[in-house]
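Lab channel / #folding
Pinned by the channel admin:
"Please post every new chain as: sequence first, then the structure tokens as a reply. Keep commentary short and put observations after the output so the thread stays searchable."

First post following the new format, from NK:
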Amino acid sequence: MNLFILVLFFMLFSGILFYIFNFNHLLMMLLGLEYLLLILSLLFLLNLMMFIKQYLLLLIFFIFCISESVLGLTILILMVRMYGNDYLKSLMILQC
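Reply from TO:
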């Protein structure tokens, strides 16, 4: 059990590093964010199984994860239609 928790924390920190160092494309940031949400849901499930035994909180967490992913994909589609690419640097240019 301790090895499983250690592997989950290693995956969490590697996901955070992936999210920090891949900030050029919006799609890569969304994939990193979904990976982090997957690891957090596993940690949350492990915590609920061991201590609280209440799975309604996990269902609410999954609902928020799904709504976040839908909003991210909507922003990605709108950005590709308006700008033609998914570079985040194209959003940061000030247009007068």
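NK: Helices lie at 2-21, 26-52, 56-83.
TO: also worth noting, The domain at 1-94 is CATH 1.10.287.3510 (Helix Hairpins).
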